[in-house]
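Why do we bother with a discrete structure alphabet at all? Because it lets us treat a fold like text: something you can write down, compare, and reason about line by line. To make this less abstract, here is a complete entry for Ribosomal RNA-processing protein 40. Read it the way you would read a sentence in a foreign language you are learning: slowly, and without expecting to understand everything at once.
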Amino acid sequence: MVSVANGEVVVPGDVVDQLKNVKLVGPGLRVCDGHVVALRCGVVTRDEGNVWINYFEKRYEPVLDDLVVGQVVQQLSDGWKVHIGCAMLANLSFMAFEGATKRNRPDLKLGDVIYAKVVETVEPQLVCVTPDGKAKGMGVLPPGGMVVRYSPGVSRKLLSPNSVILSTIGEDLPFEIACGLNGWIYVKSRTVEDTQAVLKMLQLVECFPTSGCSVSEVFKTLRGF
């Protein structure tokens, strides 16, 4: 059987490869009778033996250990409910933060935007600490930024080790960014106008390859937007 090459488009039911040829089966795929089969319409992406589908639906299906951006939408007695773009609201315990205790609870408010890790998927559960209890960038994101919901495939493309898109935008506009693998992207720049400009540039991400083009080529395209 011939495997589907990197960058080719597949539809649900297409056989992408044999399981023995793949190190890690990623989002948009499932294993069936020793074959890796597409669950979503999208573009096959391969990286050092790993394979996944970059699909452009905005609905997110939680995956264990994914880092996601979400918004606090409900207060509970023992934590909060967080919207991360999937079918169910995710649970976030007040103990899931660095330094949190029963007496020292984080002060989250409705509408706060957080960066967190998925630790359970059936009933989504989030934490804002690593196994050793450190935040390492997770937690409540600074106020003044903006969040835009893209497809999960856009975030994966931005976070690809070969991608030059974020570094290219940063040459012209300094900004902070948190890319959730759920497709929610938080951006904060010097001014509201600069933040909006970065977000407009990110709308073009689906048009860019993750590799194979120079920084100058991408920069020229972005400047012409």
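What the structure line is telling us, in plain words: The first helix runs from residue 152 to 159. The chain has three domains: 8-55, 66-140, 146-223.
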